[in-house]
């Protein structure tokens, strides 16, 4: 049976254009209107879970200092609990790749437990991901 | 009979996506179904521009949207944040920001995400062209 919730899939990086931001803004608006909505981060969309320190640092490198500032859209993810969204779904394969990269970068623990404390991250493997998407009547990809 | 909401996030000439959306919208209406909202967002707001003047042997996609919207009296909403960012303004916004004049075709209206959420809640299908 299909769920009435809209599934928003974020497949693009928070630093590559406005696509991901648009998806998250739509999700927040739906939540504000009390429309059921689920969020799935996959592919480059996993970048929204980067430690905030890393995602912010990447925007203020020496090369970028003379360019107009980029807003860190990954910060929007942190606001989800304020809109009543306690749980988000993540592509397990992409998450593992990102976690390895973060470990390589920081030599510390993965940041997922550091910066997204109130959010429950549900990891889906390839098969579960397929089933999860099929459960939704309405799927919008950003 | 089905009701559709279309979200158009593609610029008119950057890819074939906006043209595909236009073709789909025409097909929906020609087959007796309805569209409760065309929502233009991000670069898609450029489809609402009134100053597009392509070469004679190329299609005028913004004009084709305007004709479709007028013919079927469809709600065509342009996301306000995206519109302002891309220089698409109606007379009201032009006055508000002290700009020289409207750059948006009068068939479209400026609105917010609430309009989209409202349309989605009554549509049978929501399609997204990016």
Total helix count of chain B? 5
Percentage of residues assigned to helices of chain B: 25-40%
Find the structural class of chain B using helix and strand composition: alpha/beta
Shape of chain B: globular
Q: Which percent range fits the helix content of chain A?
A: 25-40%
Strand order of the largest sheet of chain B: 4-3-2-1-5
Strand content of chain A: 15-25%
The poorly predicted ranges of chain A are 107-114
Strand count of chain A = 5
Based on CA atoms alone, the radius of gyration of chain A comes out at 15 Å
Q: What multimeric state do the chains show?
A: heterodimer
Could you give the order of the helices and strands of chain A?
Answer: EHEHHEHHEHE
What's the short story on this structure?
By secondary structure, chain A is an alpha/beta fold. Chain A has six helices and five strands; from the N terminus they run βαβααβααβαβ. The radius of gyration of chain A is 15 Å and the shape is globular.
Walk me through the structure.
The complex is a heterodimer of chains A (142) and B (130). Chain A is α/β, with parallel strands linked by helices and 142 residues long. Chain A has 6 helices and 5 strands. Chain A has a 5-stranded parallel sheet with strand order 4-3-2-1-5. In chain A, β1 (3-10), α1 (19-32) and β2 form a beta-alpha-beta unit. Chain A is globular. Chain B is α/β, with parallel strands linked by helices and 130 residues long. Chain B has helices spanning 17-30, 61-72, 80-85, 91-96, 113-122; strands at 3-8, 34-40, 76-79, 109-111, 125-129. Chain B contains 5 helices and 5 strands. In chain B, α1 (17-30) packs parallel to α2. Chain A binds chain B through residues 6, 18-19, 22, 25-26, 29-30, 33, 35, 138, 140-142, and chain B through 7, 9, 41-42, 113-114, 116-118, 120-121, 125-126, 128, 130.
